[in-house]
Write a structure and sequence with these properties.
By secondary structure, the protein is mainly beta. The protein is built from two helices and 18 strands. Strand 10, helix 2 and strand 11 form a beta-alpha-beta unit.
Length: 308
C-alpha cells in the first residue's frame, strides 16, 4: 500500500538541520513557512538503465536451440572509481511540514586528488516576523579509496553567526580550524564519515559500491556546522553512524514506480532511511508521520516521491 508521509522537522532527528540551531534558538523559531521560492530546476530524464524492460518472449520453435560452447570464466573485477559512473550531480530539496526549508546543488567528480564533492545552497526559516536565510558552500576531498582528506565550508548568516571551517584528515589525526581555534582529534581515517550539509549523505552509496560490502558498516562521524560547543566532543568519543543495506524497495512518483536500494542509518544522532539507485543518492527520510524530515532529488522528482 502506498503511504504518503507528513513531513515536519523534529528537533530530535539528529540531522544537519543543526547547522542553524544556535541562530534559530536566539531568534525563537516559529515556522519553516517563510514564503521563499525554490529555484527552477530542470527535471532530468531517468537513466534508461533504471527503467527495466519487460523480458522478451522466446519465439516458439520445433528444433532445440543450438548448444553453445562453455564460455570462458572471467574473474570479476574489483570495484574501482571507474565503475562509479562519475561525475554525478543533482539538486536536493529539504522539506518540513509540507513546506520546503532549503535547497542544495552538488557535484561529485574525479580529480587529480581522487574524488571531490562540491555543494552550495541555502536554508531559510521564519523567525518572529522575519525570514532568516543561511547560505552555504562546501568542498569535501577524498582519496582514491574515498577516505576523506580535506574539508572546507562557509556558512553566511545574519547577526554575526557566519562560520567557516577548514579541516585536514591524516591517517590518525584530524586538524580542524574555525576562526582562531585549532583542534586536533584522533581518528581512524579508514572508518571516518564527514557530515556537513545534506549532500554529504550522497557519498554513502558510493562508499558501499566501492567497498563492495554487504555487511553493516559502523563509521565514526565528524560533524561540521552545529551550534557552538555541540559537535565532536572528543572526551566522549566521536558519534557513530551504522550503515546497513536493506532489501530493495519501491518509490512512486509522477512517472511511475522505481525499484531502489535502501540503507538504514542509525547511531548517536538518530535513525533514517536513505534511498539510492546504484551509486546515485535519491533521497533521505527520517522520523514518522507526526515528526519527520524529507530530502529528495528535485532534478529527478520535481514534487518528491512516495515511499511504498
Amino acid at each position: 500500500m502506498k503511504r504518503r508521509t507528513k513531513w515536519i522537522i523534529g528537533a530530535s532527528l539528529g540531522v544537519p538541520v543543526l547547522l542553524v540551531g544556535g541562530l534559530l534558538l536566539l531568534l525563537q523559531l516559529t515556522s519553516p513557512d517563510s514564503g521563499a521560492r525554490l529555484a527552477d530546476v530542470e527535471v532530468k530524464r531517468l537513466p534508461d538503465a533504471w527503467i527495466e524492460p519487460e523480458p522478451a518472449q522466446e519465439p516458439a520453435t520445433a528444433e532445440p536451440p543450438p548448444v553453445e560452447p562453455p564460455a570462458e570464466v572471467v574473474a570479476p573485477r574489483a570495484p574501482s572509481l571507474d565503475s562509479l559512473n562519475l561525475p554525478l550531480s543533482g539538486t536536493l530539496v529539504m522539506v518540513g511540514d509540507d513546506r520546503p526549508f532549503g535547497e542544495e546543488a552538488f557535484r561529485i567528480e574525479r580529480d587529480a586528488e581522487g574524488v571531490s564533492l562540491r555543494a552550495e545552497g541555502k536554508f531559510w526559516f521564519k523567525a518572529l516576523i522575519a525570514t532568516i536565510t543561511l547560505a552555504f558552500d562546501q568542498t569535501l576531498q577524498f582519496d582514491e579509496r574515498l577516505e576523506p582528506s580535506e574539508y572546507a565550508a562557509t556558512f553566511d548568516a545574519p547577526l554575526g553567526f557566519d562560520r567557516q571551517f577548514q579541516a585536514e584528515f591524516n591517517p590518525d589525526l584530524a586538524v580542524i580550524r574555525s576562526k582562531d581555534e585549532v583542534r586536533e582529534l584522533p581518528i581512524d581515517r579508514t572508518r571516518t564519515f564527514i557530515l556537513g550539509t545534506f549532500s554529504t549523505y550522497a557519498m554513502i552509496p558510493l562508499l558501499y559500491q566501492l567497498r563492495e560490502s554487504l555487511e553493516p558498516v559502523t563509521l565514526e562521524t565528524l560533524v561540521f556546522g552545529g551550534p557552538p560547543n555541540s559537535q565532536n566532543d572528543d572526551e566522549e568519543g566521536l558519534p557513530e553512524l551504522r550503515i546497513e543495506q536493506l532489501d530493495d524497495g519501491v518509490i512512486s512518483f509522477d512517472g511511475g514506480d522505481l525499484q531502489v536500494s535502501r540503507y538504514r542509518l542509525s547511531g548517536n544522532m538518530g535513525a533514517m532511511t536513505l534511498y539510492a539507485r546504484g551509486a546515485e543518492f535519491l533521497g533521505l527520510y527520517a522520523g514518522d508521520d507526526e515528526e519527520s524530515l524529507f530530502v529528495y532529488r528535485t532534478d529527478y522528482f520535481k514534487e518528491g516521491f512516495d515511499i511504498r
